[in-house]
Write a structure and sequence with these properties.
- The two termini are about 35 Å apart.
- By secondary structure, this protein is an alpha/beta fold.
- The protein contains 8 helices and 14 strands.
- It has one domain: TIM Barrel.
- The protein binds zinc ion.
């Protein structure tokens, strides 16, 4: 969680920036949309077997959890999850009818899940070594979080979606691009090839790449120009490995701390007029979010549930006690299925985009 600042000269020397492609950050620019080949995890063929579902009426105005993970390790705490508990989180959520969506899919309301399931977004901050490392022969290590995710998805094809990985390209080891620190012993080309392999694996697996700034600066301590450079440089360094046309739409605030000029967290200019523009800004805390279809949802302040010991369990028990709070999909991504009488709570934008159907129980109206 706490990265030290690298001396600027050292950063300049380590920057792994193969000819940086400039990507238009203007969301209205049609050339800027993601080509289908690099969209996040598509609807799985797996819907033939949706896996465990809940017997609840559809409620697409219910709450959604965005989970937050940092490190993998034995000494569990707010920023560290034990490997067996991470595996158990996947299992527990799956059995209770939750299915992964990326933050991008969530904020866009692109929730294409079987009826009777609940979206949950997994976010991984700081690109630490335990999240993703390769074996000596270049395969995804099954003990890393990505390796465990892959194995779980293989066993449970209905767990089809991806997660959101908030990368620090230039922080200190082990938070530098999943532990790919510069080293005299490792030739630069070899290091870059490993980063490329990791980024390819994430994108091909339907995961989302998210920017967490270059090296985790406290954005309240710097002027506007520095803030935008720290965000822009992070974005460029990630995009250097992403497929052509890839768009980063999610930004995670280091320490959850906003810049003095708040809107620089979602929109800014840097380095000779390049731009960034984000649809989602991730806070560090805050609990579950309103549904992305609810008028109270704010993509520029997405709250999260830190997966500290017992925290996820408590949230899930809360939904067991009060099932009306929980988002439950109707299985049709073209409609917003809501409790009877709750149409006034659907956000005006979403009402314009999708057909709203009042099919759920009135007492479940949020
Ligand atoms: Zn962080």
């Amino acid at each position: 969680m706490f990265m030290n600042r690298l001396p600027l000269l050292a950063i300049a020397a380590l920057l792994v920036l193969p000819a940086c492609t400039e990507v238009s950050a203007d969301p209205s620019d049609p050339a800027h949309r993601l080509p289908p080949a690099v969209a996040d995890a598509p609807r799985a063929a797996a819907w033939t077997d949706p896996g465990p579902t809940v017997d609840l009426p559809p409620n697409e105005l219910g709450e959604v959890m965005v989970l937050e993970y940092h490190r993998l390790g034995e000494d569990e705490g707010p920023w560290v999850r034990r490997p067996e508990n991470f595996r158990r989180d996947l299992e527990r959520l799956y059995e209770a009818g939750y299915r992964p969506v990326t933050v991008r899919q969530l904020v866009r309301g692109e929730i294409d899940l079987p009826a009777g399931t609940t979206p949950v977004a997994f976010t991984f901050d700081d690109s630490t070594l335990g999240q993703f490392y390769l074996t000596e022969d270049g395969e995804v290590d099954p003990h890393s979080m990505v390796g465990m995710w892959d194995a779980f998805r293989e066993e449970h094809p209905a767990w089809a979606g991806g997660a959101t990985w908030c990368i620090l390209p230039g922080a200190d080891h082990p938070s530098n691009f999943f532990g790919e620190q510069p080293s005299r012993e490792v030739p630069r080309a070899e290091r870059e090839a490993r980063i490329q392999r990791k980024v390819d694996h994430l994108v091909e697996g339907g995961h989302e790449l998210c920017n967490h700034t270059m090296w985790h600066a406290r954005l309240d301590r710097y002027d506007d120009a520095f803030v935008q450079d720290q965000i822009g440089a992070g974005q460029d360094s990630i995009l250097a490995y992403a497929p052509e046309g890839y768009e980063i739409t999610t930004f995670s605030l280091p320490f959850g701390i906003w810049p003095a000029n708040r809107e620089l967290a979602w929109s800014g200019r840097y380095r000779d007029g390049k731009r960034f523009a984000y649809e989602a800004v991730l806070e560090v805390t805050g609990g579950p979010n309103p549904s992305p279809f609810h008028r109270d949802f704010d993509g520029r302040s997405v709250k999260r549930v830190i997966v500290a010991p017992g925290a996820l369990e408590r949230q899930m028990e809360r939904y067991d006690r009060e099932p009306g709070l929980r988002f439950v999909s109707d299985g049709d991504p073209t409609t917003v299925a809501i409790p009877a009488g709750a149409a006034d709570r659907v956000s005006a934008t979403r009402r314009g985009e999708r057909r709203v159907v009042e099919v759920g129980r009135a007492e479940f109206a949020p």
